[in-house]
């Protein structure tokens, strides 16, 4: 019975991440239409794209520790309601200011749901942290793949971009309700870890955390540069509007098999993630250097294949390293991610206005290459801390 309950709980956790992927993939697909309706420049569009990341920074800093002091299921459900409220406000937006404010509210809930759900699932079986993180992000990718394709069909039939937020509202309301009503059984080791590791945020602020979080800052900067600007890149640089929405779905689709593979990786996570960073850097470089419409889709797929496992595997490393602070470290990883997203989106918009979006992709290639070094160093320190924790038991 307990295994059945936890299986249902895990599936609904995955569906929550599917919902988040559906929302963000659709937002990336309609961002250009939003900017056109409100007559935004490339820089202003970049600022709008960064609003959700800014909300992530604030939300995870303010509330990340709260998730270790209350039921993670209740925390996910509470912030899921905030996500729903943001979607409703976005659907009702009639000005650039209102859409910006609604995306900020949406982002406050989005980030906490994304950060806390893997930690909630890991409490049912800590040894499956890699499986839960990567399977959750696989479902996230599925949602992000489907959303642009569905929207392309619906908007081709006359639906306004606001329809995306109404669909996201209905989906989120259904899944959050089911998740809240499903029971979970905590693993006995979870309570023991909480008792052994007490203290506030200072208890996780060490070299291992800062370096892994720094690598995730770089990764999300790269991912944001790719996903939020691939559609304008295809339209403005390649003059290939027919494949613009497809490029977003292709990136997310390519993440699915690599995340499924990563869900089985329990050892050598450091080497695995470093290889992913290196291949992602190559894909970004080719996007900037070889601007051919057909090949650009290949570069998109290559990027998605390489980038997919990076974030969820890094989150699982932090969960393994700080077993008594899983909620806090999961959400602090999103704080770092938010900083990377804000910086990259603003920089991509500004560089695109100044030098063209094609040249802006050289920046994200460089950031991805830097991620190899930073993550390798952080993983080495994380393994040392894990060994020290095991020896103290």
From TrEMBL:
Membrane topology: Multi-pass membrane protein
Ranges for domain Major facilitator superfamily (MFS) profile: 9-383
UniProt KW DNA-binding keyword: no
Tagged with keyword Transport: yes
Sorted UniProt keywords: Membrane, Transmembrane, Transmembrane helix, Transport
Main location class: membrane
SUPFAM superfamilies: MFS general substrate transporter
A family per Pfam: MFS_1
GO cellular component annotations of the record: plasma membrane
Ranges annotated as spanning the membrane: 12-32, 44-63, 75-92, 163-182, 203-222, 242-262, 271-290, 296-319, 331-348, 360-379
Localization per Swiss-Prot or TrEMBL: Cell membrane
Alphabetized GO MF terms: transmembrane transporter activity
Family note: Belongs to the major facilitator superfamily.
Name listed for the protein in its UniProt record: MFS transporter
Organism: Guopingia tenuis
